[in-house]
Amino acid sequence: MSRPRSQAEYLARLVPPSVAGLNRRSLLAGAAGAGALLGTGLLAGCGSGSGSDSGAGSKTVSLGSNASDPTPKDALAKVMDGFKTSSGVQVNINTVDHNTFQENINNYLQGKPDDVFTWFAGYRMRFFAAKGLAGDVSDVWGKLSGYSDAFKKASTGDDGKQYFVPMSYYPWAVFYRKSVWQQHGYQVPKSLDELNTLGAQMKKDGLNPIAFADKDGWPAMGTFDILNLRINGYQFHVDLMAGKEAWTSDKVKKVFDTWAGLLPLHQPDALGRTWQEAAQSLQQKKSGMYLLGLFVAEQFNKDEQDDLDFFTFPEIDPTIGAKALDAPIDGYMMARKPKSEANAKKLLEYIGGVDAANILVKSNPGTLVANTGADTSGYTALQKKAAELVGSATEIAQFLDRDTRPDFASTVIIPAFQQFIKNPKDIGGLLTSIENQKKSIFTS
Amino acid sequence: MSDLPLIQADRAVAPPAATTTRGRGRRLRLLSRTDRVVITLMVLVPLILVVGLVWLPALATVLLSGTNWDGIGPLGEIDWVGLKNYDDVVNIYPPFVPAIQNNLLWLAALFVVATPFGMFLAVLLDKELRGSRFYQTALYLPVVLSLALIGFVWQLIYSRDQGLLNALLGGETDWYGDPHVNIWAVLVAAGWRHVGYIMLLYLAGLKGVDPSLREAAAVDGSSEASTFFRVVFPVLRPINIIVLVVTVIESLRAFDLVWVINKGRNGLELISALVTANVVGEASRIGFGSALATIMLVVSLVFITLYLATVMREDKR
Question: Which CATH number is associated with domain A59-169+331-378?
Fold first, then answer.
């Protein structure tokens, strides 16, 4: 469910499970009740290379990584080299394909996971912490500096302890091309009304006001999230995602009503379009703006990068403001019983430190580093602005599918949002359907 | 079947007790030690495979469908929830009804359009046209191509903004996104593959038809069409049954194309895609997904029973 980071990854996920083999096998095994055994056998197979070390005196630590794309993989290797130089501890990196890693995470964590592994902040992190599948790293946090409260909050489990060390993130915002806006003399909207006026003007000028795509199901979550954050605020978002608030409430209805009001400004027929195609309509100056993550820049040529700019979604309710946003955080967690806890914590401390962040700035331009102490002079203008935006945020949400149960997000929310985009009129019936399914899932 | 010596030997044992020793002697002679080992292995290996890979998982699926297991924790901690999953599937799961409809539509489309068309092409190719090898390869190619590639090829054709079809027609039809259109668009793609498959199966059958039958029909003054329908088609009965079974199986297990396109959502719901979406991956609604899988099993059983009943009745005759 994570956003593809490159064309190659997007293509790779077109391969259906029946072809990918591993998933099919784990499906069968899961049905046979042996999923835990086989799945972990496959994943832990890579981890067993580190089985030779034992106790705190050893000089190795194993790392399960989902960074299977060339750029992140290379950046991760450089960070681990830095750790080896500074501590003398060797890191055995077990890289698993990004999607496979995510789909097998349940089995992986129940088997023999690596000492440290890559994961995302949010509900799923707290879920594993609550299930006892992740190690407490509160004492590592005692030694970390350079993190805003928002990042610490995002790393904290339900019991108030930290289970996660953030490394990088990317914000969601409304992107546009400076040249197009200058040509038509558009101004950044400060309120919903101004956004509507701007959209109407763009329509007159022959542009699609807001590029939109939801073939893959997740991009619309970004639209819902930002409207919900602007209308009902961060705490409501968290409670709604945790299943504590009713989807049939007036607050959620208002979000959908507002969304329905904005839909005419969105690119039509979104359900057959990929986010890449929508991003290209922005790149080709056919669309005026596009609400997406920072990774939208991938669809722009090198010489067009400077022409890309963004603004955060405008305020809707003055009492709520416009300071919260979606900025999914990627980072690291520790296994419940690492083979060498001391080394694992040493590694996490290094990852959370300034040195690792500095290495990441130099080796991966597609993301922002979480540690504010890092030397960010290597950032592009867009990266700098994105970092400022997130730095000024009062609260950071992780994105709908990272903030709630994955079964709810993928089997209920995606079909429901697509239904809404098809037929924005029957909001009441749709919300009742979501609420019924939510009750069944969250009580099971 | 009756030409197997083993069965003859068994039949030989059955008559009166007086011949028992003789019968046993024959049996021993027929089944040497090696024979028995071989037979045991030949029965045991497939039996273990079938039980282990088909029956046990199927049984486990049925059992799991009564639980709310999320794939985490030992099997001992699974809670029994009875028929709740089935209740949820039928009453509050919106994609379920469209999925059943789509599966049936799939079956109808393959049965009424794609299969007859594949058979028709096979008959044409059987005429020894010039370059028939080329047509054969071209038509069979979709079956050979990898699914990822097929999904990509059709994406290039059907894409709303950048696709070939809209560029040619000059329209703005949202082939994959409009839920009223996309199932037909996918059926064209599925039919494209199915036609090639059926064509090859049927062509193999046609090549095996004794030419003298046709000559005799021609001598009797039968037209091309009536020769096919009254002589060739009945002779090909075994192949016809295989084609029918293949069509049913293909439409029940249809999954790959819709999964490649949009994971079986938004008008492309299929039972198999719903099962996968719920069970595989992070969602891990194993109980709920198993309930869907069990429903699919029951639907398949209806067709399997019909098929077996027909075949067995034929065998008795």
Answer: 3.40.190.10
